[in-house]
Amino acid sequence: MWHLRMLGHLMLIFLLCEADSTCPTESNPLTVHPPEVIGEYGKTVILNCTSTELEYEEMYWRSGTTTSEKEDELDFVGWSVPLSDWHVTAKCVIKLNNSAECSKDAEITVYKNPVKVNLFPTKHTNSAVVGRPYELQCDIREVAPVKNLIVRWYINNQIIKTDSFNNTSKTPVNTFSTSKVVLRKDQHGVQLRCEAQLDFGRSGPQLPAMYATYNVSVHYAPELKNPDNIVVYEGDDITLTCGVEANPPPAFIWTRDGVNMLENTNKLNVIQIKASATYSCVATNYLGSVTKIINVRVIANPATPAAIPTTEASTKKGCPLLLMPAEAVVRFGDPVSVNCSTTDVAHFEGMGWEAPFGGTGFEKSSLVTWKVENLEEWTIESKCYVTLNDSQCSVKPDITVYKNPVNVDLFPTKNIHAAVEGKPYELRCDIQEVAPVKNLIVRWYINNQIIKTDSFNNTSKTPVNTFSTWKVVLRKDQHGAQLRCEAQLEFGTSGPQLPAMYATYNVSVHYAPELRNNTDNDIVDVDEGDDVTLTCEAEGNPPPVFNWTRDGVNMLENMNNLSIIQVTSNATYSCKATNYLGNITKIINVRVIPRAAAPAAMPDPGATTKKGCPLVLMPAEAVVRFGDPVSVNCSTTDVAHFEGMGWEATFGGTGFENSSLVTWKVEKVQEWTIESKCYVTLIDSQCSVKPDITVYKTPDAVTVSLDSSPMVEGTEYKLNCDIINVAPQEKLQVKWYKGSEMVHKQRFSDPIVTPVNVSSTLMATSSRNDDRALFKCVAELHLGPKGPELVPAAESSPYTAVVYYKPQIQNCPGSYRGVEHEFHMDSLICKADGNPEPTLQWYYQGKRINASEPLTRAQSGEYTAKFVNSLGSISTTVHITIEYPPSFNCDKSYEVQADGKLQNECVPQGEPKPDIIWYKDGKQMSTPQYWRKHDSGSYSLKATNNHGTANHMLYVDVLYAPVFRKGSYTLEVTLDANVTFDCHAEGNPDPVIRWNYTSADNVMETTGGRQKNISITGATSTNAGVYVCVATNKVGSVAKAVTLVMKGKTRQFPRDIIWILIIILILITITILIVLYCSRRKKQRKYSLVSQSMPMTTKANGVQA
């Protein structure tokens, strides 16, 4: 057979000479595993490439311009490919020789799950209308590849629509899906959901769906439940019910015989009815209206019965059962019990309670009690029944289960935090998780004065979220008013009196600037050279911006007050106050009064004389504190004509004296107005002069107070400085300080000399920075150059400002990692600044949570921190990751094919992601990537993270196709000889071996262990031929051949020599022809493909290379 092998190799050489560098698909020896890879962006995948051709020059992977290490010995090459490029490619290349190269691509899909899914109505209409299309849009952000995206739409978990996308972009995109639904009124409050999921088929990764929900309110016109004709006894009270359903809840109008009764509720209470009448109820909302007619017929009242059961008990007419209480109002989760007794003991056989919980069964007792320790159902179906001798009847208690609101929130509907004077300002009060809503009353207040009351017609018994709105028109004097909504469950006087839940909102009222004194033109007189302060006296909200001009020239001043130093000329000043609502202008005309000319000569700085009168006063001006002494000398300069002089005064006068110097002296000044003069009598005349005496007094007290409370951020406040008992007022100047900074100064011009009480005002807009700021005012008496060296002053005690402002987050992390069963949201440092001190509320998936409860691994996700005080709220999100120790949830045994990977890898759970170590036979090993046929065995896995360690034992059974120990061969047998040849193969699972041959009487198969033998007894020429052994298991099958050649007892040497010479001659001839042909083809540069019928060499006869 050796000549046949040589012939095959020569033919292969011939075919390779015919081949160029391309590679036919049928002859490609490469296999890529896995052939298709789907991986998340940023992760790494492992690719393996195997070849069935063992004779090659090199084999490697190529991705873009990057290549892996080149392999030239083994039949495979592996590579780790990072998925950091959306267009990543990977190609396995094998170079068979200088002229032949094959390659195979791995299909790689890089994906990214949506970052966010958002669901909202397309027309921003929060409510659907019955029977009309209502369109919603589902936005999906940053998803790739979008062609694998499936969007499913649900109504209450029932799928209604599926969308797919044709976009072939591989990079992340933003996309959307829309769905139009037509809803019925019984679908009010229905939950619509859109789910976005990347779908890669059954063989691809099963990724979680991202979803968003939207609860829609369904509006419909009012509808009548049923008409009524009512018969009632004269003098009875009656309640008429309109019995109309609608959404939004309708407005009601009641009439009695056509006369409007000015009632606007669903129910009408008629007290002590006297006469028959026709009542009509008109229910209207924006979708329509409906009218219900109720005919009430009044009949004469029968005689009063002799006995009536107590108000706490109830019996059913004709049924001798008494319930106590017949009606009960119970909080969800609380206990409840009702006694049931019979009044017909004579015919009594037994009684009991039928109920889904708390039932008693049939009892002989005439008193049975239905009792539930924790009432956790919203609809109670329980009844007490009695069996009498000839009948049976039952009664049901009226049980109302309630739940107080979880939260009440108040906010403006248009997110406008300030109202405008005279314009409607709408607020909305959200009440969350309340039941039953028909018993809910919402009251609206302004500064504790009730303005509006709302009730609800929803008959749902389970907790719902609802709301009430209110449009209010405010005045400017209501700036800073506190608006409040109170939500309270009311069950009448006999029911429980539950506390009201409330929320408040302090509203700022904006208005255009206005002048305080209602005059827009002022005249101010000022002495030449004096300082003056002009006040615009305009107020507005928000505080106006001021602009001052002088004779039409802009002065670039923007304060309410304008200080002018040493006025010298008349001028017209205008102040324009502006905010976004309007402006107003005030004109101030400043007139300057010229000062009198100074005298030509002065005796000295402290003396003065009167023109034509020879008298000199020293000092001519004096400033004296009330109660202090004062004296003034008076002398004459005309001694020649002098006869006498003296002082005339209300106190301290001297009388007429011959001395040319007289002194007016007062030990204690106790008058505010001093009338004193010095006179002189000359020979021919008399004259006099008066000193200028200023009496002053520092204030008894200076205090600062807030004109109205409280200070609220962004609103204007007014601080008053009260100066008590100060004189003279025209010398008074008040300075305002915030901390150490002077912020305002005010002078007074009233010429009152007696002590007065004076007030100064500081107007400013508060900010949160003003909280705890210290304000003070200083009252100074500026008495001129003759006054004390140190200006007399009195200072107030500091006033500590308290400014209320809404919360502002100071310190809250964007993410945090906590330990399972240990971490709770209360332990997270998340702070906000606000006044009043804000309270912190935590929300998860839209619901408020108990922040003191420890979290579990299933509760990782986005949490919302909401800080709330009476002025508003602010929210932020924190991503919480709950860490927990490792654990395994893997099988105990696995099967894997040789050179392959586990289909379902054993990956431990844990956070952070555990590190995993593999052990075999007690020795640590690297994590297996591809399993070899001798890797079967027991393995120990150890997973570790910060919080602990977990262990897992598993057995891996590596399966591989059968392999023969010995390949095909030829066996020569002498005639009549006995011969035995075997077939043995290794494989996992153990292979099944069978022989294929031409049967004969002298051929027998025997089995020994894992091998099968062929035994031939007395071989004959008919036994010559090919015997094929086939080994098979579930991985594959291989075959080998044993060629049996018969030879006679004498050597046939000459015949064999002849055949050998013939074959050698043929081979030499073929070889020469091939060489000549190849040389000719290379010269002509012609190439052709390898014949499709000639496979590349693999393993010879199944024998492992």
Automatic annotation (TrEMBL):
Q: Where does the signal sequence lie?
A: 1-19
Asked whether the keyword Signal is assigned, the reply is yes
User: InterPro entries in the record, alphabetically?
Assistant: ICAM_N (IPR013768), ICAM_VCAM (IPR047012), ICAM_VCAM_N (IPR003987), Ig-like_dom (IPR007110), Ig-like_dom_sf (IPR036179), Ig-like_fold (IPR013783), Ig_I-set (IPR013098), Ig_sub (IPR003599)
How does the entry describe its membrane topology?
Single-pass type I membrane protein
Where is it localised? Membrane
Its GO CC terms are: membrane
Q: Which Gene3D superfamilies match?
A: Immunoglobulins
* PANTHER family (UniProt xref): INTERCELLULAR ADHESION MOLECULE, INTERCELLULAR ADHESION MOLECULE 5
Please report the name of this protein according to its UniProt entry.
Ig-like domain-containing protein
What organism is listed for this UniProt entry?
Dicentrarchus labrax (European seabass)
Q: Which gene encodes it?
A: icam5
